[in-house]
Amino acid sequence: MLYVIQQGGNFVEKASKPEDLVYVVCSVQSIVNSELTYYFSDGHATDFLTSFYNKDKIMELPQIVDWTAVKTPYWGGNDNLNIKRKKQAEFLVMEDIPSNFIVGYGCYNDSSKQALIGFGIDGQLVKVIPNAYY
């Protein structure tokens, strides 16, 4: 989804600059320990090959998700369709996530970091990670 948001296409009419996109990092453990309802998948949500799991399978998440596919830098072409699907595994929370579950923010560059600090976010919680963008 981030790729489409940055490049445009599909449902995105206008591409967004990476400087305008922020990762909000939450503690999965906090969510798991809470009363929030969550689900996770082993691939892209709209693919018929993808399976969804609830809290009953959370201890198996490390084995269910293909971490090699998630971390791969290349997934294009017809030979890699299943890698592309697996790379898009999701952890979805049904309700709003309380702000105290937020443990940090990721942004594209120092200018983005300064903007977040200007919004009142503690600079120690903001990490510049340009390689997390396309």
Account of the protein in words:
- The protein has helices at 2-7, 28-33, 61-64, 67-71, 81-87, 110-118; strands at 23-26, 38-41, 52-53, 91-93, 102-107, 126-128.
- The strands form 2 sheets. Strands 1-5-6 form a 3-stranded mixed sheet.
- It folds into 2 domains: 1-36 and 95-134, no CATH class; 37-94, no CATH class.
- The protein is an alpha+beta fold.
- Helices cover 28% and strands 16% of the residues.
- The model has no long low-confidence stretch (mean pLDDT 92).
- It is built from 6 helices and 6 strands, in the order H-E-H-E-E-H-H-H-E-E-H-E.
Q: What is the strand and helix layout of this fold?
A:
Blueprint: H1 2-7, E1 23-26, H2 28-33, E2 38-41, E3 52-53, H3 61-64, H4 67-71, H5 81-87, E4 91-93, E5 102-107, H6 110-118, E6 126-128
Task: Offer a concise description of the structure.
The chain has 134 residues and is α+β, with helices and mostly antiparallel strands. Helices cover 28% and strands 16% of the residues. It has 2 domains: 76 residues, no CATH class; 58 residues, no CATH class.
Kindly list the characteristics that best describe this protein.
single chain, 134 residues, alpha+beta, 2 domains, three-stranded mixed β-sheet, three-stranded antiparallel β-sheet, 6 helices, 28% helix
